[in-house]
Structure formats: structure tokens, C-alpha cells
From TrEMBL, chains A, B, C, D, E, F:
Keyword rRNA-binding annotated: no
PANTHER family for this protein: 4-EPIMERASE, PUTATIVE (AFU_ORTHOLOGUE AFUA_7G00360)-RELATED (PTHR43103:SF5), NUCLEOSIDE-DIPHOSPHATE-SUGAR EPIMERASE (PTHR43103)
Residues of the NAD-dependent epimerase/dehydratase domain: 4-178
Key word Oxidoreductase present: yes
Pfam families linked: Epimerase
Name the UniProt record assigns to this protein: Uronate dehydrogenase
InterPro entries named among the record's database cross-references: Epimerase_deHydtase, NAD(P)-bd_dom_sf
Length: 264, 264, 264, 264, 264, 264
């Protein structure tokens, strides 16, 4: 693994990760539709690309050994936009990877692919897909696409169902779903250097006290989160008790599960 | 159930079913992008619609209690066409249904959603999605979409993973995957009139001797196939033995699993 | 098996079964709290007993090889009565059986032990108990009691979760839950004469088209229902469509699941 | 959670917990049939109540947000007493809770509900009930009752199958089943303040080296035991080897599984 | 499949099958250590071979497309003999097959590989091996060997756990374990001509009323037994009731499970 | 446990363990076919024995309470040798143990019993046997034999599927399969002194970052590995990336799975 591409590098997770990416010890190409806030850092290799433009994508994928595909729309939005970017764009990325001989991809999926499971159900890699949003449905498309490229072309993907990757939990629910950027970085490192990756589904979450997701089936990878939301417990100590029957509390998808259909 | 819409009515399955649809005893509206071969029958209610055109779809859905959604591309094809029709088109159909208050939909999915499972693996409603084609990936999108509309809006869908619905098996593999049109019709009747449908995954296959798919988890519906491919056994009695390690034999998707990426 | 006791012989199922019990070819003692409607038949051996009276029960159990325990309250009722008859009474019966050396008991349990499962969930012998009524809770007590006597004293019990044992289905739901008296009789015969009974949970239901319950784990017994509610389909052909989201339709327990707490 | 009731406060576990209950930071009402040994502490709010007396129970439940129901008979005893207290009494408590609008209950169940499983079988929340005593059967009644109130009335219960909650293990078996009072207190805190409790089955046991019970399905609660019986290993270092085929060693229920029927 | 070898052709099952083997429509070579009782039939192709003699085995395997390996010791015996014939002999057969390019083997295993499961446990292809005899252990060796040749060399084997293949059931237990020779022949036909065999475990049993073994995981083969022991029910109608706690009744292996270690 | 026999004491694991065996606090008899390299230590009790010689084995087993059976061939070899030592020899050992009244045996099995499972499949005690070598097949025989002696004669065995027990990992694969000798010793101690052992399958592996095997089903034993291969990570930091599709990487058996049939 010499050259690695990160898409969506100007997005939320990209922005969190960029300062610590050098720890990976690989050449990193960063890509997004626009420059990052504040502009690229001096030592960063930026390459603009629109995921829905096959030529753009082919250009940035060229010469890469692996891709961290964080690009795309990452919350509920208009269905036409989601189809354009998360369906067509993800397909464009995988096709470019296939043609360029890329062997490994991290596909940034989301917990909203399984957001309509109840909080009291422990999920694992084989749990039924139950998207809570059109956004979640589009990521289910991406997950299925990743398995297609694996079974047909032996392109390995880590399907990463990310919980909440922020500097710290922003609400009570994130005490269960939070993932630290350091745990994310270690997972990326694992995914890049594992002798065999295959096409596993991994839940992207730190070792928080409240646990909804069981990653034991992918223990062969050797990734174990080291951080925990427990350090932020005080922040929510005096929170107003939630209604246990509020759909945003009942379902793992939280507010996404509760919301009606997106209207612009 | 007074008024039922069938999309894709000029397609393969639509053409097979049209002569026997009157047995359902409901008012049937038939829709496709073009007139059926030979033109509509005198008593048929045809309504032209392009699935990717929201206005068209809204018009034909209007006033329907249920939809048999057989429309869309039903084999491997160019990805852009598949995205347009099977992704965008399926979304358009479900949104129209939601707005029009339709309560039940049969979503015609395919065995190519699980085509990369080995033949010796018995699948059921909870088996992992393993599409063997971009076509299969697009149907995985549709299945996920159906569950979204069920969990969020209580629109019931029968997710039907159709084997091979033809007058008779066309090759050795279809001895396992064949579904008679009469079994299909009985399943449609079941789906229309069951007290509660929910959002089950059902494999569309007759009671053939070779069985890859187990529908027992959806036995609550009360559908039991009555036909069998056994009646066609003589047709394949002198077939050339197949190579058990040919990908088209190893995988349930047959030729779809064996084929390379679609190139136009 | 020479001498068999049936409790609750004047109740609904007892009354249905009495005319065909002679087919079993055993000496049958019939017991209830009161004489049956119309009085005993000339060749019947009746013995009055109150299940909550240990002396009564000891008397009728005396000399029996097996017991068909259909006695008790068989629908929702005041909790104090249910506790008296179905909890204390069932205990009294099992203790009397233990002391008298009875080796086999049919414990008439009910589908209301699992009535809060959804209709679209296929249950089997290991499914979680989810009673829909205090009546159902009392039968969960009886089921647990039967396993206690099995594990500690090797008294074998057939735990029979009866669906709806009537001459014919009385409502739409019973198309799924109906059990013919002939299927019941064959099950009793099986239970009396099996080389080994153990302590299985069996769902008491005929081979109806709609199937919620899977008895395959107890296939070692050799009981296969031969009747089907299909013969009564015409009776419900013109039924008013049910609301699939009505709790009485959603849950297997039907009206029991929908009802509030019993108030006298 | 402002006001919490503890029943059985003068019993074994109540006595262990009372000194540390103030850490919960809630107003605690303590109840039992009689004064605690040594009398109430100055700051304790005691309320006498007989669980089988509905008026008593209604009085102490009044105004409570949650109940820790440790009351009842906690070992094998005469069946009539167990039925009176653990069956009728538990029902009385739940009915009082329903009428008073209590939303959460900890139901103190026992490992003797599953005592006839072998030691080498790892159990979890879905394991089959196999009571080893009439006491265990009565707790199976209580567990079923708790699920009834959850499914019908949305009263949340933590069904706690307690191992051995003592200051320290009293015999070799308790090295596996021991639960520290601090772990118990943390579980109570978790149960009171979780955003959503549902109706989970949790095994009440510390993080002991020998582990028979797997709580991972209820990891969503966020409770993780911190204590371990390992600290008491020296106490049993020179124990006489046990016979691995002694029923008290074979079965998880230990001496309860080995004992004959209770005779007074 | 032109040329098929049957080993053990002079044994019990071989003798039963020989008259009907011509229905298979293949050239059959029959082999055993000695001539069959009464000598070969005029049209039979007999080839003497000792399974423990590599040269013998190579000679009879030569030119075969498939092997029906019924040879070996088929009941409990001295361990040294069993090791010689069933361990060393089976290895010799598989090695000869590998070197001769044979692609398919029926390995005649036995229910005594799983004979220490209780009668009330429904087994399937994935059930734990629990041999009830050294004979059963030697067949577990053979089953493991078959999977080795499958995974390493793609030699397909049907691992057939035969119940009781006799003209008719000889005792009460065989009402559950009986397999007709016609069902056996149909299974052989299926195994020879299936497009893909793989390396499945199949229980060799007819469609008897009492069923201990579930073949649904291998339904892809298309074999469904058509006979049933029900036709012999009268034979056992007046049997002396068996003791349900007799090890020969408790365990599926019957008398094999009950017997002590073989002593010569 | 006073007197314990270790077979194979001059082999690889025996040599590693011998210096630390005194920590067990039992009288240890060491046995092998020849003297250990460098000769016995002064305080060691050595007894020569050939596992295939019943008289030899009877002599060394005499008077032992337990056996640590590490003897036998521990890598792929000529089939006739493997059958002689690992099949006949293991049988000889168990028979001697039965006759001498030995109650507990550690049977040193190997991960090569399951070597044809893919690396990305998490295995546990119930996973299907898939040997990757004749050596692995012979250990499958030994495992089946151990269960026979357990079910028929109540001789308890720990079936230990050893990963790689060396001073440190010797290649990249051993980062996942490594077991420290201290973890091995603690497991032996656990096995000798557990109140009840039964006949569990345990994977012999330290708490390494990469985990292929899940021992949670045998958590009742109380063994938890304390070492980890993580301490050796630097050793493989600059390893040449492996081909994820190399059979030696795909399969858990590593090079054993990749190798062709053993040719001498």
C-alpha cells in the first residue's frame, strides 16, 4: 500500500482525520468536490473530483492501491440528489477502481442502513438491512455494490457502518454511537494492512458503555477500539429523561427514524 | 381491494399473466411504457407510463388500492439505464404510492439479488444479499426501499425474489428455479387478500424437486406452490453433464454470476 | 397404558373429544367439577373432582397410567380465579400424579402463552414466551411446572399449545389456528404410545394453509395433522377486509392481545 | 426518577444494599412485611406492606416512579406459601404499579429459573426456562407476568436472574454465580436511568472467571460488572474435589437441582 | 457417468440393491472381498478386492467415474479390525480414487456417527458428531476424510448417514430409521447425475412418520424419499411398551449406545 | 489430582512446558518414545512408552488420575504412520485410561482439524470439522473418540485445538494463532482442577489482536488467556504484503491447506 485515495476529504470525517492521516505512513491523495475549509495544508496532495463524473473519478483513482471512500451525501436529503451522488457516484467510483486495478476500498456506510432496528436488539454483521431514510437506502445500494465487486472481481471492501464520528458525542444517543477519530484511524490502518480483508461489515463505534453493535464476527481483522464515550458521561448527567417510547429513542436510527419523508 | 395496478404489463411476466388475471376478481389497470405486443385485449384497461416520470406514475397509481410492480429492467444492462429505471423508477413508484394512499405493493425482485450464493446453500428470507450483477444490485436497492416504506409509512410490500417465470424451464438450471404462472397468480391473490401482509421476502418458485430456497418463514401467508418442474424432467434427461465447478453451476445466479461486467 | 384420566372432560374440548375417545382403546376415566351437559353417556366412567382440592385430585388420579389434563379456566378471567385453578390446581394435579406414579401427562396449554408474537413470525418449540393475558401467564406457569417434573422426576409431559379446537373455524383468524378433533385425537394417541415422549412443546393445529407454528422440532413423535381449515375457506370468502394494523390482526393472540386488562 | 420503592428491603439483598442506596441520588421508600433487623436507620423511609394485600401494596406504590421488587420468598419452600407470595403477591404488585402509573420495575428473578441447564451450557437471555424448584417455577410465572405488562401496558421491567448476591462466595459454586453488591447497585442505577429499558432478561453476576451466563444481548443497557470472585480464589484453593457427576455440580441450580421435592 | 464401482457389493445393502441397480442405466462394477452368496448373477461384473490392499483397490477403481463405497465393517467389532478396514481401507479407497481421477463418491456412513444424540433432538447436516461405538468413530474418520478430498482436490462425496436399510423394519426403533432400497436407489441416481454434488451430509431414511433427521439443508439435490415405514405399523402394534429411560430408547443409536465397550 | 501423565513430553510443546510444569503442584510422569534432548532433568519422572504398544501404554498410565496427551505425530506425514500413531495410538491411550480408571484427559488436537475454513469465518466449539491434511483427519478421529469415551464412560476430555504453541510467532499467520506456554499451563491447571470438565472443544490460542476462534461457549471453565502476540508486532512490521487470495492466506490452516497431498 503505497498510494491511497481519500474521497470526501473536505467533509466532516475527512476534516477530522486529515491532521492524523500521516500516521498511516502512506502517500495520501485527498479529493473532494471543492477545496477544504481554510484551504489545503502545505503537504497535502489535493485532487478535485465530482463523483458523478467518470472522467474526474478515473483521474484521481489512477495509480492508487486503495481508496477510503468517504465521499457522498451523508445525511437525509432530496432523493434525486442522493440517487445522483450516492448511487450513481458510488458506482462510478467502484467502476473506476476496477479499471484502475485498485484492490481495497473502505466504503463509508452508515448506521442508518439498520436504523429501524430497536435499540434493545444487538446487531451484528448479518443483521437485516432496515434503512430509516432514503439516505440509508442509498447506502444499502452501496453495500450491495461492494459485495458485487468482491464476489465477481475480488476487490476487497470494508463496509463500515459508521455510528457518530465527531470530536465528542453531541447528544445522549451518541453516548452509544460515538466513534473517536483515533479508533477510526486504527481501523483504516487495519483495513489497509490486513493480510486478507475480504468484504466484511464492521460497525464503526468506539468501546462505549452502551453497546448496540457486535463486531465479534470480524475479529479476524484485529481491530479493537480503545476509546470510550464514558469520558463524556458528565456532559449528559443532568439530561432531561427521554421518553422510552419516542421513536427517536426506540429505534437505533434516532431522529432519522422519527422524521417523516424529506421535503424540500 | 377493488382497483389494482400492474406495471410492466407488456413484459415477460406481464404477458404470461394477463390472460389469467381476471381470475383475481379485481379491477386491473395495466401499465407499461408501450402497448403490449398485439395490442391490448378488448377488456383490458391500459395506461401508458414511464416509471421515471413522476407525473406519469402519479396518474396511473391514482385510485389504486394495490400495485403489482413488475415494471423495470429485468436483466443485466448498462448501469446508467438500470439506475434510471430500477433505482429512480422504483423510488418514483413508491413515492407515488405513498402520496396516493396505496397500502400494498408486490415488488418484483429477483434471485439475482442472492445469485452469488452457492447452489448447495439453502437460503431463506434472512439470507445475506449477494447480487451477481448491477441488475441484482439495483433490486437490492428496491428491496431496501420497500422495507423503508414499511417501517416508516406502514405500506406493506411482498418482496418477491422471482426464480424463472416462463411457460416451462428453458435450461437445466430452471428445473430448480422455475415458477409456473398459476403459482404466481395464486401468490398475487394471497398477497392481495391476506389479513396482514407485512413486508416479507418470498422466493418465487414452484414446488420443484431441486429446492434452493426455503419459504417456511413466510408460511403465515398461506401460499403453497402446487406446480412442479418435475413434469419437464424428460426434456433434460439427455443433457450433457455440466461441470460442477463451472461458476454458472456453482452459483445460484447461473450465467449472471459467471458473466463479466456488462459491456455495451 | 391401561387407564387414562381426562380432566376438564365436561369442557369444550372434552365435549368434542368424548364421542371419539373409545378409538384410543384404553380405559378412560372422565373428570370435571360437574356433570357434563346432558349427563354422562352410559359407558362413561365419570369422577367428580375439584382441581384445587388435593384429596379430590388424588382420588381420581389413583391407578392412572397417564393424564390428559384439559381441566382449568380456558379464557381470560379474574386473576384470583385463574391463580386458584390454573396455578394452584395445576400444581395439585402434578403433585398427585407424582405421588401416584403417573408417568405421562398431556398439559393443555394455549397459544395465548405466545400471543404477543406478531403474525408474521414463525414460532417453534423454542420461541420466547409472550403471554397476552393473565390466562396466558398462568399457562406459562403450567408449562414451567411440567418441565420441573420432567427434569426432577422424569414425568413426561406433552406441552400442547392449542390453537382453536372447535368443530370448525369461527372467525377469520381461526383459518390459521384451527385444530380438528381428529387431529387432536391422533396427537393424544401418539402421546400415549410413543416409545419416548420427553417433555416437548407442540403446537396444536391442523395442517392449515396459513401456518404460524412450526412443529418440525418434535417430528420424532410421529404426529402429522391430516385435516386442514382449507375446507372452510368459502365461509370467509366475503369477509370484510381486516385492518392489518389492528392489534387483533397484528398479534397471534388475536382479541386476547388487543383486550385491556380483564375487569369484572 | 424521583421516588423509588424497594420491596423486600429487610431481606438478604435489601439488607446488603440499604447502606449504599443513597448513592443512587433518589428518594427511596423501603418496604417489607416487618421492620428490618436492628430497626430502620434514622434517614430511611420505611413502609410496612404485605405483598398479598392489595391495599397495602397500593399504599406503598403510590407516588413511585419505579419499583425494585426484591420482595417474596427467595428459596424453596412449601408450594402453598410460594403461590401465595410469589404468584399472587407479584401479580398484586404489578397491578398496583399499573394503576399507579409506575413505569419501571426491577423484577428480582433467580438463576433457579434456569437451574436444570448443565454447567457447560452457556446461557443467554433467550435460553429455555428450566426451573429446578417450585420456587423457580414461581419466578418463571413472574417473568412471564413482567412481559405481559410490557407488551400490553408498556411498563418496562428488568428481569434480573440473580446468581448469588452475598458479601462473598459461600461455597465453590458461588465462584461462578457471585454478584457483588456494588455491581448490583450499578445495575439498579443503569435500570433507573437508561433512556429505554424495554423488558430485558439480565443475569445478575459479577465478572467472575467462570462464566455460565452471557449478557451480551443486553449490552445496550450499558451495565458492565466491575467486580470478580477471583479475589476469593484462595478461600477455595484447598477444597475437596467435587464429583463432576453429582447433580449439584452438573446443574447450574446446584443444590436446588439435586434436592427432592420440598417436604415440610 | 458411464462406469460406476460399488464396493461392499456382497454385504447387506449391496445384496439388497444388486437386483435393482440396472435401473440406473450405467455400467456397474461390483466389488467385495469374496464372491456374493450364491455367486454373481450372469450379467454382473464382479471384481474381487481387499480394501486394505492398495494394489487391489487401484485395480478395481481404474476407469470408474464414480464409486458407491459401501465396503467396510458395518457394525461394532474389534478396534484393530475396524482401524484396518474402516480407517486404513477408506483412506486407500480415496487415494486410489484421487489417482484414478474419480470425481464422485458415495461414502456409506452411519447414524452411529451421531448415535449419542437423544431421540427428541432433531438433527441436520450440521449436528455435532457423537459416535456411539468405535465403529461410529471410524465412520467419523471417513466423513472427515471425504471433506478433506473435497476441499483439497474437489472430489465430490455424498456422506450418507444410513439409518436401517433392510427389506423392512426389524424392531420398533427402525420405524423411525428405516430406509427402503428404492429410496436408496433414487438417492444413488440423484448423487450420480446431479449437476453439482458438493460434499453434503445426507441422512439415509425414508419418509417415516417418526422423523429424527432433517434433510432440508440438502434439498438442492432434489432427492425426496417416497416410501414410509407406516406400511409396517401393524407389525409393532402389540409391542411391549419400551422404557423411555432405557439408553437404547433415549439415544438415537439404540442398542449401540447402550452396549458397553466391545469385548471379543 | 495427585499423579498426572504427560505423553509426548520430549516433543515441541512438551519441551516448552517441562520447565514450568512444577507450578501445577502435582506429581508429573513424563513419557515419550525416547529420552528428551539433553536427557531428563534430575527431578523428572520419565517413563518410556510407544503409543502403539498397549502394554507400554498400560504401564505408564497405571496409577494416574489424569493424562495430558500431547503424544503423536504433529504435522503432515505419511498416512500409514499417521494411522499407526494418531489413530491406533490414540485409541490405545484411551483404552488404557478407561481400564486404569483415569477420569480426565487433555487431548491435544489441532487447528488443522478446521483448517479449510476461511480466515474471515469466526469459529467456535460447534463449527464444522474441515481438516486440511491427513494429519488433521487423524485428529478429527481423536476428537470423535474423546466424545465416545465421554458419552459412554464419563471420561472427561478437554479437546484442545492448538494454534501455534512456540516461544514466539514464527510467521505472520502466527500473530493470529500463537499461544504462549504460560497460557497453555493455565489451561492445563484449569482442566485438572475444574469442578466439572465435561468434554469441551477449546481453541488453544492467546488473547491475540487478530482472533479467528471464539471460546465463549466454554467460558464455564474459567480459563482466560493473558498473553498476546501484540508484543511481537514489530517483528512483522516490514513483512512483504501477502496475497489475500493465496490459499495459505485464505484458509485458517495456512500452508497445510495450500499443500498438495503428502508425498514421501
Amino acid at each position: 500500500m503505497q498510494q491511497v485515495l481519500m474521497t470526501g476529504a473536505a467533509g466532516g470525517i475527512g476534516t477530522l482525520l486529515r491532521p492524523i492521516l500521516p500516521k498511516l505512513g502512506v502517500k495520501m491523495r485527498l479529493s473532494d468536490m471543492a477545496d477544504p475549509d481554510g484551504g489545503p495544508a502545505p503537504d497535502e496532495d489535493w485532487a478535485m473530483a465530482d463523483l458523478t463524473d467518470a472522467a474526474d473519478v478515473a483521474r484521481v483513482v489512477e495509480g492508487c492501491d486503495a481508496i477510503l471512500h468517504f465521499g457522498g451525501i451523508s445525511t437525509e436529503n432530496r432523493a434525486d440528489l442522493i440517487h445522483e451522488v450516492n448511487v450513481k457516484g458510488t458506482y462510478t467510483l467502484y467502476e473506476a477502481a476496477r479499471k484502475a486495478g485498485v484492490r481495497r476500498i473502505l466504503f463509508a456506510s452508515t448506521n442508518h442502513v439498520i436504523g429501524f432496528h430497536r435499540r434493545e436488539t444487538l446487531l451484528d454483521a448479518d443483521s437485516e438491512v432496515r434503512p430509516d431514510s432514503i439516505y440509508g437506502v442509498s447506502k444499502a445500494y452501496g453495500e450491495a455494490l461492494a459485495t458485487y465487486y468482491w464476489h465477481k472481481f475480488e476487490i476487497e471492501s470494508l463496509i463500515l457502518r459508521i455510528g457518530s464520528c465527531f470530536p465528542e458525542p453531541k447528544d445522549r444517543r451518541m453516548m452509544a454511537t460515538w466513534m473517536s477519530r483515533e479508533d477510526m484511524l486504527r481501523l483504516i490502518e487495519t483495513m489497509l494492512f490486513a493480510p486478507r480483508l475480504g468484504c466484511p461489515v464492521v460497525y464503526g463505534v468506539s468501546d462505549n458503555p452502551e453497546c448496540w453493535w457486535d463486531n465479534s464476527k470480524t475479529a479476524y481483522l484485529g481491530w479493537r477500539p480503545r476509546d470510550s464515550s464514558a469520558q463524556f458521561a458528565a456532559k449528559f448527567a443532568d439530561f432531561e429523561p427521554e421518553d422510552p417510547n419516542d421513536p427517536a429513542v426506540v429505534y437505533q436510527g434516532g431522529g432519522f427514524a422519527k422524521a417523516g419523508h424529506y421535503e424540500d
